[in-house]
Amino acid sequence: MNRNVIFFAVASVLLAGCHTDMWRQNKSAPLSQNDFFPDGQASRPLLAGTIAKGHERKDDAFFTGAKGGKWVNELPVPLSKKLLLRGQERYNIFCSPCHGQVGDGNGMIANRGFTLKRPVGNYHTDRLRNMPVGHFYDVITNGYGTMYSYASRIEPSDRWAIVAYVKALQLSQNAPLADADPVALEESLKPKEDKAHAEGAKH
Length: 203
Hints:
Layout: H1 3-16, H2 60-64, E1 66-67, E2 70-71, H3 81-94, H4 96-99, H5 108-111, H6 126-129, H7 133-142, H8 156-174, H9 182-188, H10 192-202
Antiparallel strand pairs: 1-2
Helix pairs in contact: 3-8, 7-8
């Protein structure tokens, strides 16, 4: 038998087994309607206790800001300059519009008609200065009052970076003079004209 005849015979048998059903299967597009379910929605919520592969969250302190039912008092990540710079960047993007550049609650949104029964949080009050770091992480994750959750916008590692930066802001506005570098402190207390004269003398 001619090889071409054999080839076409085999190909015909294989093609005969293919149907459009193989790629046109019954399925529901995301957010489409499905009358099978009582609520009519094809997209279903995750079952309770379901965890996506690779997303196990075994470190409670890191992922919730709490351990043993209490807010953690120390960062669950190493404190570094890199962490603070990342926190500053993320804070300026997500937090400063309401809380302000220095965390005093006087951001642009707060000053342009965002009036509430409870004003935007001022990080420099005694209450928030003494709040554990876990509280700030939880607020970013779950929201607080009229502030909505940022969990879908800010990754856990970046939340901790922001928390570290908030604590740095608190320290910057409330640190005692005794903690300041003596040389930098003396320079900052000089009259402006003396500073300008010193700068001119360098050139």
